[in-house]
């Protein structure tokens, strides 16, 4: 129950006091109903414990109101999440702070991502803060899904052309281009049109998906965590390799080419031998745009195809 402080009255004002008490009780009940109807959790919290909790807070934290009062908001925080800056909320009036943390529902054990907004209340005596809890788990999932859709290729799950070029632009803007090498590898699946024409587009899709899976797995196991693997069109893929010079990137590309050629791709029409031609180029100190690097890699890729396919060609820096 939300408690209001009642003032003292003399005997002559007892009738007025009774009316005032009734009015305050009515106001208190109305305020409690209003707070319980709010679509977010509301806590009134001292430095040591919860003093008040609305229905929303009880539901989010999995507690009955009576059991929640006396506990601490930090009791519900997942142990390995970033600590809630609870004490800072008591520092000053008129300011609020917000933070995203994972709280655990004590009844179901379910973890939910919460936006927590805290601000000190202007109450005399005991220092208290108002804590607002908003469940943003589903919102974040939707945002992440939309972001994933905007930066990845729907069929293969590789990054798409737009995102790859965006990341490449960021690398190009860095001022330490001489100290930090940056190379690219342009990959093209050999005779992919033949695969589509002979076995059908469904098998072609299987090849594209497997090629992407192998690309991701290769980068993850080759000390290339910062590299980006993208599908930039049809059967053409791109690897952005920051921190790798031409020799290192060419060696990486050759290793991937050998592994790809050495293991057939399993499809609904049986195993297929899949190879790739790869062109590699490194950023030069005078490159003004990513397109200039990509054009050199494309020239190298053309040479790899013209000289027999299933090989790596690197353009000298």
Q: Could you list some keywords that capture this structure?
A:
21% strand; Alpha-Beta Plaits; PAS; diguanylate cyclase; 2 domains; 39% helix; five-stranded antiparallel beta sheet; diguanylate cyclase activity; disordered N terminus; alpha+beta; 317 residues; GGDEF_dom; Beta-Lactamase
Task: Describe the secondary-structure layout.
Blueprint: H1 14-37, E1 41-46, E2 50-53, H2 55-61, H3 65-68, E3 96-104, E4 111-120, E5 128-135, H4 137-151, H5 161-173, E6 182-189, H6 192-199, H7 201-220, E7 228-233, E8 236-242, H8 246-262, E9 276-282, H9 290-306, E10 312-314
Parallel strand pairs: 9-10
Antiparallel strand pairs: 1-2, 1-5, 3-4, 4-5, 6-8, 6-9, 7-8
Helix pairs in contact: 6-7
Number of structural units classed as domains: 2
The helix content is: 25-40%
The whole-angstrom Rg is 31 Å
So, CATH architecture of the largest domain? Answer: 2-Layer Sandwich
Can you tell me the overall shape?
elongated
Query: Would you tell me which CATH topology of the largest domain applies?
Result: Alpha-Beta Plaits
Output the number of helix runs: 9
Question: Structural class from helices and strands?
Answer: alpha+beta
Q: What is the β-strand count?
A: 10
- Beta-strand share of residues: 15-25%
| CATH class membership of the largest domain | Alpha Beta
